[in-house]
Design a protein that fits this description.
single chain, 324 residues, 2 domains, eight-stranded mixed β-sheet, two-stranded antiparallel sheet, 10 helices, 10 strands, 24% helix, disordered C terminus
Length: 324
């Protein structure tokens, strides 16, 4: 592990990486893709920002290059939206989340300056149309991100330092995912918005020097958010193949319930999927979105086809927002 120390504070190898600029994602830039993945910003005249994955990352002080823990007072009081990726942090209405952070830790703007987040950046190609709620970013869990990074289909890694982390908007999303033989709803994506540079960072694994404080924050916020989404379970954010990759025969509980429904109706598995493919697809989507589920599975047997089977926006978490 290429970590160096200056005094008692750790300094990691990407602290003095080249500073990212918008030129990096423009033609002939190091992170330019002709067909890139975009995320909405949520402005009145909608803007879309290019999505980058940042891995082996840490937050550093611009002057010293020393790692700043996620629990540091210059960071822990920064606002972070919850569940708003599909609409963007600039979107404002009574249903949008405001912020969640530790009470009393708000810090003046000047104190937020001089922080950067550095690591290895990857550019994502376009991955097809957006879903019904303008948001399928919940699919980009640690397992999926790891698969993408090892697939060779992304552009990178490119070491970069993104300045003014303390002034960037952030959003956190939950998702349904496998962990330790169970299907859990867990905080699974953290986004950092840089509208002036035209990009959004999706954080993947933190660098080992940054991991303890970041994982402690994930645990703390998971428990805190149970007041508005009781299904959220404290699960580590950093990818771990042993406990996060499900066995080949594993299926989420809702998918198993859908399969049982077909068996009770006398269908063979393949026949049932052909008979109620929308039900199978919906069970998958709701499972991977995570959160509370309110769906009458009997409709698939009775042949009833109604939009009422779709969960409400508040239960799905796609559009809902909370102040914690």
């Amino acid at each position: 592990m290429d970590v160096h120390r200056s005094g008692d504070a750790p300094v990691f190898e990407f602290a003095h990486s080249p500073v990212f600029t918008s030129a990096d994602v423009q033609r002939r830039g190091a992170l330019y893709l002709p067909s890139a993945r975009y995320v909405p910003l949520g402005t009145a005249v909608e803007r879309w920002l290019k999505l980058l994955i940042l891995t082996s990352w840490a937050i550093t002080d611009d002057l010293t290059g020393e790692v700043i823990d996620w629990s540091h007072e210059r960071i822990e009081g920064l606002p972070c939206f919850y569940g708003g990726t599909g609409r963007g942090p600039a979107r404002r209405d009574e249903h949008r989340p405001e912020v969640f952070s530790k009470p009393g830790t708000s810090i003046q703007v000047e104190g937020r300056r001089g922080l950067s987040i550095s690591g290895q950046a990857y550019a994502l190609p376009d991955m097809g149309p957006l879903g019904k709620w303008n948001n399928e970013f919940y699919l980009l869990t640690a397992v999926r991100r790891s698969e993408m990074l090892t697939s060779g289909n992304l552009l990178g890694p490119i070491p970069r330092r993104f300045t003014e982390f303390g002034l960037a908007a952030r959003d956190v999303e939950h998702a349904g995912r496998y962990f330790g033989h169970e299907w859990r709803t867990a905080l699974s994506q953290v986004f950092v918005y840089y509208p002036d540079e035209g990009v959004v960072l999706l954080l993947h694994d933190p660098h080992p020097v940054a991991r303890p404080s970041f994982e402690a924050w994930i645990q703390e916020q998971s428990i805190q958010l149970q007041t508005v989404c009781p299904d959220i379970f404290p699960v580590p954010y950093t990818f771990d193949h042993e406990v996060m990759v499900p066995p080949d025969d594993f299926r989420p509980p809702l998918v198993r319930a859908w399969e049982s429904l077909g068996a009770m109706a006398g269908f063979e598995p393949r026949e049932w999927k052909e008979h109620d493919f929308p039900g199978w697809l919906f069970a998958q989507i709701v499972s991977f979105r995570g959160g509370g589920v309110d769906w009458d599975l009997t409709d698939g047997v009775e042949g009833h086809d109604s939009d009422d089977d779709w969960p409400s926006e508040s239960s799905s978490g796609e559009e809902g927002g909370h102040v914690v």
